[in-house]
Design brief:
A: alpha+beta, five-stranded antiparallel β-sheet, B: mainly alpha, MetI-like fold
Chain lengths: 390, 275
C-alpha cells in the first residue's frame, strides 16, 4: 500500500500532442481515486504513466515515497486492469492468475494458496481450469481483477474496466468493486468517462480536460461546488442548466424570469453585467406537489416530460441564448438543438407532478444552490455562502 | 449457410473443385505414373495396368536417394530451426519495439526478399570458397538461412504487429521481461503463424535446386532436387521410375503439410478475420 504522487507531470506525444499538461495530483494511501473526463482528456495516459507504460516528458512520479519516474512497470509493483481484460488466451484461468507470481519465482505452495484465495473471493473456483475463450464477459472481468489482486500490489490501476459489460452487469460489478476496495484497502486509481461510475466509486474524483486537471474533490463536493463551468456541466445527470443572466439589484434575470440572489452571495462586482447562472435539475421542484413559501417560483410552459417512475424530468424552454461556452460543448454528451435563441432547461421533479407537455407548471427553485460562473473565464464566482473547497 | 442460395453453394463447390483439380492433377498424375510397370510409357491420366509399388524401392536404391534425403534433412532441419528462431527474434523487435533505424532495418530485410540467389550467386560462390565452405553443408545452410530470414522476419513482424498491445502491456505489468513476454505470451499465441513459417521455410529449403547445384559437387552433399535431376539424366526413358523418384522427393513436403495444415490455414488467415 502506498500513496501515489504526480508532480508537474507533462506528456507530449510525437507530433506535439500534449496529452497531459503540468499535472500535479496526490493520491492518498488506500484511497479510491477516479480520473474522469471526456475522451481524449488524458486520463488513460495518466494511468499509463503511473503504471510505467508511458514515459513522462517532464515531471516526476512517486509511489510510496519512492521515486519511480524512470522505473519499468515491473519495478513499480502496481497492477493494472485493462479495458479489454488482456487475459492470456493460451493459459487457463489458474495460469492467468498465477503468471505474475511465477515470473517472480514465488514458491509453488504460496502461488497455489494465493490463487485459491483470490478465486474464492471472486467466485472463480469453478472456472480455474477454463481458458478465457470459454468465459463470459463478466467472468473475464473478474479474472482480470483477480490477476491484479493475486499479486498484492501497492496499487491497482483500472482503465475503464467495466465499459465492456452490459448495463446491468456493470452496476453489479461496480458494487463489487466498491466492496472489494473496502475490504482490501489498496490504493486504487480508476479511469472512466462515465460520471456515474466516477461519483459512485470515487472517494475523490479528479476531473480532467485536455490534459489539464480541473478539480479534485469528493463526489459530493464536485457536485455541490464545481470549480468551473466545465466541471459543472460534466458532473451531474441530467446536466446542470446553464444560462446567461444579468445581475441587477440583488437579482439575476434571464429570459424574462427574475430570481433573487441567495443571501450571502455578493455579486456586486458584476452589477449590471452578465454572469452564467447554473441551476441543477434537482434544485427545482413542482411547487404544487411541494409548496414552500420560502422559495421563489417561476412559471414555465412544459415542452417535454420524461417519466422515470421515481421522478419526472420536465423540459421547458427559456428565452435566453444557451451558454455557448466551449466548456459546455466539450462536456455535454447530448446537446439539445431546439433553436438557437432559446435554452432548454430540465427540472427533475416529484413523480406526482401534473406537468404535461404544452401545459404550464410552477416550479420552486432554491437560490441557495445557484451556481455562478464568470462568462469570460468559466471560473466559479466567489461570494457563495460556503466557499468552494477545491 | 443462411443467406446463401442453393445455386451459390453449387457454384462455390464447382469453383473450388475445379481449382483443387488443377492443383491435384499433376501430383496425382506423377503418383499414378510411378506405379506403372517399369519401361512402359504412361500417357495422360489413367490407372496403371498393375500396381508396381516396387518402383519406389528401386528408385530409392538406384538413385541413391537415401544419401540425398540425408543431406536434405540435415540442411532443411538446421535451416528451419535457425531461421525460425531468428525470424521470431527479428520480427519481435521490428513489430513491438521502437528504436532508431527500425524502418531502415526492415527495408533491408525486404531487400533480402526481393533479390534472388541468381543475382548474387557468383560473388557468394567466391566468398564461400574463400571461407573453404564449398562442398560442405554450410554452403547450403548459411545462404538458405539468410534467404528465409528475410521473409521470416517480414512474416513474424506482421504477426507481432497484430498481437494485442494490451496483452504485452499486461505481461509487462505482471513483471515479465521482453524475453519472457516473447516466449511465454506471444510465441504460444503465435503458434499458427510460426507453424506456417516452418512449413514454408521447410518447403523452400527442401525444394532449393539452384544453390546446391552451384555450391556442391561432392555427391555426399547433394540434396534431393539435384539428386532427382541427376537421376532423371540417367533414366530419361524410364518414365515410371522417374516418376517414382519425383514422388520420393515431394513426399516429405506433403507429409509436413498434411500434419500441419490446420494450423497452416489458421496462420494464413490470421489477421484476415477478427478473432
Amino acid at each position: 500500500m502506498a500513496e501515489i504522487v504526480l508532480e508537474h507531470v507533462t506528456k507530449v506525444f510525437g507530433g506535439g500532442v500534449v496529452a497531459v499538461n503540468d499535472l500535479s495530483l496526490e493520491i492518498r494511501d488506500g484511497e479510491f481515486m477516479v480520473l474522469v473526463g471526456p475522451s481524449g482528456c488524458g486520463k488513460s495516459t495518466i494511468l499509463r504513466i503511473i503504471a510505467g507504460l508511458e514515459e513522462v516528458t517532464a515531471g516526476e512520479v512517486r509511489i510510496g515515497g519512492r521515486q519511480v519516474t524512470d522505473l519499468s512497470p515491473r519495478e513499480r509493483d502496481v497492477a493494472m486492469v485493462f479495458q479489454n481484460y488482456a487475459l492470456y488466451p493460451h493459459m487457463t484461468v489458474e495460469q492467468n492468475l498465477g503468471f505474475g507470481l511465477r515470473l517472480r519465482r514465488m514458491p509453488k505452495e504460496e502461488i497455489r494458496r494465493r490463487v485459491t484465495e483470490v478465486a474464492r473471493i471472486l467466485g472463480l473456483e469453478e472456472l480455474l481450469p477454463r481458458k478465457p475463450a470459454a468465459l463470459s464477459g463478466g467472468q473475464r472481468q473478474r479474472v482480470a481483477m483477480g490477476r491484479a489482486m493475486v499479486r498484492e500490489p501497492v496499487a491497482f490501476l483500472m482503465d475503464e474496466p467495466l465499459s465492456n459489460l452490459d448495463a446491468k452487469l456493470r452496476v453489479q460489478m461496480r458494487a463489487q468493486l466498491a466492496q472489494l476496495h473496502d475490504r482490501l484497502g489498496t490504493t486504487t486509481v480508476y479511469v472512466t468517462h462515465d460520471q456515474v461510475e466516477a461519483m459512485t466509486l470515487g472517494e475523490r474524483v479528479a476531473v480532467l480536460r485536455d490534459g489539464v486537471l480541473q478539480q479534485v474533490a469528493t463526489p459530493q463536493d464536485l457536485y455541490a461546488h464545481p470549480a468551473n463551468l466545465f466541471v459543472a456541466a460534466f458532473i451531474g445527470s441530467p446536466p446542470m442548466n446553464l444560462v446567461e443572466a444579468t445581475v441587477r439589484h440583488g437579482t439575476v434575470a434571464f429570459g424574462g424570469l427574475e430570481l433573487p440572489l441567495p443571501p450571502g452571495v455578493d455579486l456586486s462586482a458584476y452589477e449590471g453585467r452578465t454572469v452564467i447562472l447554473g441551476i441543477r435539475p434537482a434544485d427545482m421542484e413542482d411547487a404544487e406537489v411541494w409548496p414552500d413559501p420560502s422559495r421563489p417560483e417561476i412559471e414555465v410552459t412544459v415542452e417535454v416530460t420524461e417519466d422515470l417512475g421515481s421522478e419526472v424530468n420536465v423540459l421547458f424552454g427559456v428565452d435566453a441564448p444557451p451558454v455557448a461556452v466551449e466548456e459546455t460543448a466539450a462536456a455535454a454528451e447530448e446537446t439539445f438543438l431546439l433553436g438557437e435563441a432559446r435554452s432548454i432547461f430540465c427540472a427533475r421533479v416529484d413523480a406526482r407532478t401534473r406537468a404535461r407537455p404544452g401545459g404550464r407548471v410552477r416550479l420552486s427553485v432554491d437560490p441557495t444552490r445557484f451556481h455562478f460562473f464568470d462568462p469570460a473565464t468559466g471560473a466559479a464566482l466567489p461570494g457563495r455562502a460556503e466557499p468552494s473547497a477545491a | 449457410m443462411t443467406g446463401i442460395s442453393r445455386r451459390q453453394v453449387v457454384a462455390n463447390y464447382a469453383i473450388l473443385i475445379a481449382f483443387s483439380a488443377i492443383a491435384i492433377y499433376p501430383i496425382a498424375g506423377v503418383i499414378l505414373a510411378s506405379l506403372y510397370p517399369r519401361g512402359t510409357n504412361p500417357s495422360g491420366f489413367s490407372l496403371p495396368p498393375s500396381w508396381n509399388f516396387g518402383n519406389l524401392a528401386t528408385a530409392w536404391t538406384e538413385g541413391q536417394f537415401g544419401m540425398y534425403v540425408r543431406s536434405s534433412v540435415i540442411v532443411a532441419t538446421v535451416v528451419v530451426i535457425v531461421s525460425t528462431v531468428l525470424s521470431i527474434l527479428g520480427g519481435y523487435a521490428l513489430g513491438t519495439m521502437r528504436f532508431r533505424g527500425a524502418t531502415t532495418v526492415f527495408y533491408l530485410f525486404l531487400l533480402g526478399m526481393i533479390i534472388p540467389f541468381e543475382a548474387i550467386v557468383v560473388p557468394l560462390y567466391y566468398d564461400l570458397r574463400a571461407l573453404r565452405m564449398i562442398d560442405t553443408y554450410w554452403a547450403l545452410i548459411l545462404p538458405e538461412i539468410s534467404g528465409s530470414v528475410a521473409f521470416g522476419v517480414f512474416w513474424m513482424r506482421a504477426f507481432f504487429l497484430s498481437a494485442p498491445r494490451s496483452l504485452i502491456e499486461a505481461a509487462r505489468i505482471d513483471g515479465a521481461s521482453s524475453w519472457h513476454i516473447l516466449w511465454r505470451v506471444l510465441v504460444p499465441l503465435g503458434r499458427p503463424a510460426i507453424l506456417t513459417l516452418v512449413v514454408l521455410t521447410f518447403a523452400g529449403s527442401w525444394n532449393e535446386f539452384f544453390l546446391p547445384l552451384v555450391m556442391t559437387t561432392d555427391p555426399k552433399y547433394i540434396t534431393v532436387p539435384q539428386g532427382l535431376s541427376l537421376f532423371s539424366g540417367r533414366y530419361t526413358t524410364d518414365t515410371p521410375l522417374l516418376a517414382a523418384g519425383a514422388v520420393i522427393v515431394m513426399l516429405p513436403v506433403l507429409v509436413v503439410y498434411v500434419f500441419t495444415q490446420r494450423e497452416f490455414i489458421r496462420g494464413m488467415l490470421s489477421g484476415a478475420l477478427k478473432g
